[in-house]
Specification:
Belongs to the ATPase epsilon chain family. The protein is α+β, with helices and mostly antiparallel strands. The chain contains one helix and seven strands; from the N terminus they run βββββββα. The protein has one domain: F0F1 ATP synthase delta/epsilon subunit, N-terminal (ATP Synthase, domain 1, Sandwich).
Length: 123
């Protein structure tokens, strides 16, 4: 069976390396799928994008990426992201808590902006 060698790297660490049957990534030009024998390519990863890797052994790997590049040369795919994290590393309860705090902070700032606009209009 044909396979491709994949490296998923962020600026601060090696996230995953191994053999895979397919890689998909969201780029600034759209979503791309890489199979063994793919033509050489250099693509820019989409901000807040997703990369998926189907390893030859084990479960599919899903990573959130922030910027960076994807390179295909021969049967090697290198994904170099400015920042990346695996879906399996995300604590969903912590993420929901952070999102709730962000929403509260945003509401506070909106309220202050509306109050300032009303005060300016009253002058």
């Amino acid at each position: 069976m044909a396979d491709i060698t994949v490296q998923l790297v962020s600026v601060d660490r090696m996230i995953w390396t191994g053999e895979a049957s397919i890689v998909t990534a969201q780029t600034t030009e759209g979503e791309i799928g890489i199979l063994p024998g793919h033509e050489p390519i250099l693509g820019q990863l989409k901000d807040n994008g997703v990369v998926t890797i189907n390893p030859l052994d084990g479960e599919r790997i899903v990573a959130a990426v922030q910027g960076g590049f994807l390179s295909v040369v021969g049967n090697k795919v290198t994904i170099l992201a400015d920042w990346a994290t695996l879906a399996s590393e995300v604590d969903s309860s912590e993420a929901e808590s952070n999102a709730s705090q962000d929403d509260d902070e945003l509401s506070k700032w909106r309220g202050q902006a509306e109050l300032a606009a009303v005060r300016r209009a009253g002058r």
